[in-house]
Write a structure and sequence with these properties.
The chain has 744 residues and is α+β, with helices and mostly antiparallel strands. The protein has 13 helices and 33 strands. Among the domains are: 93-231 and 264-301, Immunoglobulin-like, CATH 2.60.40; 562-645, no CATH class; 652-741, Sandwich (Immunoglobulin-like), CATH 2.60.40.10. Helix 1 crosses helix 8, helix 1 runs parallel beside helix 10 and helix 5 packs across helix 6 (481-489). It has an 8-stranded mixed beta sheet with strand order 7-6-10-2-1-16-20-18. The protein binds zinc ion. Zinc ion binds at residues 1-2, 486, 490, 509, 512.
Length: 744
């Protein structure tokens, strides 16, 4: 999803970082006067004592807490190896779907049937299965609706129930109506399938189906047919819903816009970590889904345009001959080609004639879900996406007239709406540029990480502020680079790397927010990095703040004591902390790892290794941590522990500068202290009286057995100042003790 304020700000601050200027951190050198290791080769231990610190200030730092061994509670095994890759006996189950739906756009009702082919690759027999009935969230007595908290203004006079993650209290005939659940079987020797009613039990957003015969282990299959219907909520937990027809702000004058998702009963994942993953959908946390192939038929009023995950297989039935020509042209074009323009929306000739309803046929392969949109109000445009292998895909946008500022208006370099980068585009709705943005983010991320796997990438304007699905994303009526880049960034997390969002939201939103920093900086030669800071959220834009002061505000916010750890289940977090803990703080953690600890080359290799190893699979947090360590060759447990597992802070102080024999020309002894629970590499800027500046770096390992660190700096003249964290890129929350200056 999209977390407007904070993710926008996270982009802003992370982009301010000098990605190319990463340090390579040399190991702390052994001082020349350190005691030599005795005993070997006749060396004798020199008669010199270790340098000891005096006046060490009070500190919370305990190097054993941070650096102790054995963060991992389990050893690697044949399913998930110790180096983080899937083991030789890794398995996952598979769910293939044939889906049919009909939408009644007057009643907002979707009626469908599903044929599910479920393959059990686990080593265990399964006597029942679990499915997800997410529409049941919108029943007023659902578990999720009953958790929506109260919020109040500061006077506590205005107290209301509020959350982004529910149906906003809409009273309607919500939830699934399950008409039938049948097991399809083929009797031995018979060629005709028989359907028998299955016993099932529905509890909140889960359905348990009891099987008369267990599904065999190691490849056994089950075929089920389910008939269902539901009425779409207007607002579906910010992940689906309806833009109503009308001329008011937020409405669509040319027809309702449907964004349809969480719409068919979906298999729960059965894995070797949790067994059945049956946590209910309460709105806060997202999804965990099996991979498979989808064949989808959607029947809608003929005046509606339908867009869906995957490839449209019957354009000849649902677009006019002129529009089919334009599609063919778009497939060859790097420039955006208009398929149905704003002027054509109300022309009957812009839809095939003679039928009241049309059925749209789509297919998507190796996907964990499929979603769709429908509206008579859609403008549609498209362009070709060029992929690194030479394959092509299609960028497509579908949006109403309300979604576009005048495409001919003069470009402005001013920032657009908060959280959305300007990119030099007119403020306001930016869907006229949606397709070029889709093309830019997908081409960048395909080159950088892993090739985009789907035949089309469709952006749909509508009710959801920003929500991702395989091959299709839903964004607000405004659109814009920030949200389009973010939602299509989810192609890599969790559509390609299929982690468990319900338990590990940070592996989804955090990893995506991180790759957004690079696509925003570099896609289309940095075109979308212009337009000023996103504004809003942490850090602010106060003109009196230096970049490092602004960053310090961010570091304070990321580590402020009431925050839960990143390694929390999303359902276990205050909703107000989601933006920090699922999006910006884990993203900042990856930026720190990339720029301050490993350097871009080593980080990018390790991160890409993780993506490639776990593409279309189900990694756990340990699989990620272990892969990053194995592929970079570093033990990073201290870093995971400080930033991800705990809410520890970093506060390093520059305490003292002394001179050897009180003579600045003989060198200086500089002392720094670690005062909080975390550690990071160190960057110091040293300025001498003649105005020369120099920088000194240490790896984080100086803190592995020290709370204070003194080192000899080869000064030739008196030092005027020593500044720790001169660029603000280390997450030190307390800037008051970062600078030592000579007393004049
Ligand atoms: Zn997201």
């Amino acid at each position: 999803m999209n977390y407007k304020l904070i993710s926008g700000c996270a982009l802003a601050f992370l982009l301010g970082a000098n990605i190319a200027g990463a340090q390579t951190t040399p190991p702390a050198t052994t001082p020349a006067n350190a005691p030599a290791q005795g005993g070997r080769g006749g060396f004798r231990r020199p008669n010199i004592q270790p340098f000891t610190e005096d006046n060490v200030p009070a500190t919370k730092y305990d190097y054993h807490d941070l650096w102790k061994p054995f963060m991992y509670t389990k050893n690697g095994d044949e399913t998930r190896a110790a180096d983080g890759q899937p083991g030789p006996k890794y398995w996952q189950n598979r769910a293939d779907y044939a889906l049919k739906a009909r939408i009644d756009t007057a009643a907002n009702e979707i009626t469908g049937s599903e044929v599910l082919t479920y393959t059990n690759n686990s080593p265990n027999k399964l006597g029942f299965i679990w499915m997800q009935l997410d529409q049941n969230l919108f029943k007023l007595d659902s578990r999720g609706n009953k958790q929506v908290p109260l919020v109040s203004d500061s006077t506590r006079t205005n107290i209301v129930q509020a959350s982004r993650n529910w149906g906003q209290g809409q009273v309607f005939d919500a939830g699934y109506k399950i008409k039938s659940v049948k097991i399809i079987s083929m009797a031995k020797g018979s060629t005709t399938a028989t359907e028998t009613d299955a016993k099932y039990l529905i509890n909140d957003t889960r359905m348990q189906i009891f099987l008369p015969t267990e599904i065999a282990a190691n490849g056994g299959q089950l075929k089920l047919k389910i008939e269902f219907s539901f009425i779409s909520p207007d607002y579906g937990s910010d992940r689906m819903g309806i833009i109503l027809q009308g001329s008011a702000r937020g409405q669509s004058k040319n027809g309702k816009i449907f964004q349809v998702a969480q719409w068919y009963p979906r298999m729960c994942v059965y894995d070797n970590l949790q067994g059945w993953n049956t946590l209910p959908y309460t709105g806060e946390s997202e999804f965990y889904l099996e991979y498979g192939d989808f064949d989808i038929n959607i029947t809608a009023p003929a005046k509606d345009i339908v867009v869906c995950s995957g490839e449209l297989l019957n354009a000849k039935d649902v677009y006019t001959p002129e529009q089919q020509k334009r599609w063919a042209q778009a497939a060859q074009s790097d420039k955006v080609v208009m398929i149905r323009s704003a002027d054509e929306i109300n022309q009957a000739s812009s839809r095939p004639s003679g039928k009241s309803e049309l059925t749209w046929h789509f297919a998507i392969h190796n996907a964990r879900d499929a979603s769709w949109g429908a509206s008579a109000a859609f403008i549609v445009d498209a362009a070709r996406i060029n992929l690194p292998s030479g394959k092509k895909s299609m960028a497509i946008s579908a949006y109403p007239v309300e979604s576009g500022a005048d495409p001919n208006a003069a470009a402005t370099t001013a920032a657009a709406t908060p959280g959305q980068r300007g990119g030099g585009f007119p403020a306001g709705g930016q869907w006229h540029h949606g397709t070029e943005m889709i093309k830019a983010t997908i081409e960048y991320n395909s080159n950088k990480w892993f090739e985009y796997p789907y035949p089309a990438a469709t952006g749909v304007a509508g009710k959801a502020g920003g929500m991702e699905y395989p091959g299709i994303v839903f964004c607000s009526l405004n659109g814009g680079w920030g949200v389009i880049d973010h939602e299509f960034g989810h192609t890599w997390f969790p559509m390609i790397v299929g982690s468990n969002e319900r338990l590990y939201g940070w592996m989804d939103e955090g990893f995506n927010t991180f790759i957004n920093t690079l696509s925003t900086a570099y896609a289309d030669n940095g075109k979308y990095a212009t337009g000023g800071r996103g504004g809003g959220g942490f850090g602010g834009n106060g003109p009196t703040l230096t970049p490092s002061e602004r960053l310090a505000i961010t570091w304070r916010a990321y580590t402020s004591p009431p925050l839960e750890p990143i390694l929390s289940n999303p359902d276990n977090l205050k909703e107000a902390n989601n933006g920090t803990l699922l999006y910006s703080k884990p993203s900042a953690g990856l930026v720190l790892l990339r720029e301050q600890v490993l350097g871009p080359e080593r980080f990018d290799f390790a991160f890409k290794t993780y993506i490639n190893r776990w593409a279309f699979k189900h990694p756990s947090p340990d699989d990620f941590f272990r892969t990053m360590e194995a592929a970079s060759g570093e033990s990073l447990q201290w870093f995971w522990r400080g930033w991800f597992e705990n809410t520890w802070r970093l506060d390093v102080a520059v305490r003292a500068v002394r001179y050897v024999n009180n003579d600045p020309s003989k060198g200086a002894i500089i002392t720094i202290d670690n005062l909080e629970k975390m550690a990071m590499p160190v960057t110091l800027e040293i300025k001498t009286v003649s105005g020369k500046t120099d920088r000194v770096n240490f790896a984080a390992e100086i803190w592995e057995r020290n709370v204070s660190w003194s080192f000899k700096y080869p000064s030739t003249e008196a030092i005027e100042s020593v500044t720790y964290n001169p660029d603000g890129k280390l997450p030190d929350y307390n800037t008051s003790n970062n600078v030592w200056t000579a007393k004049k």
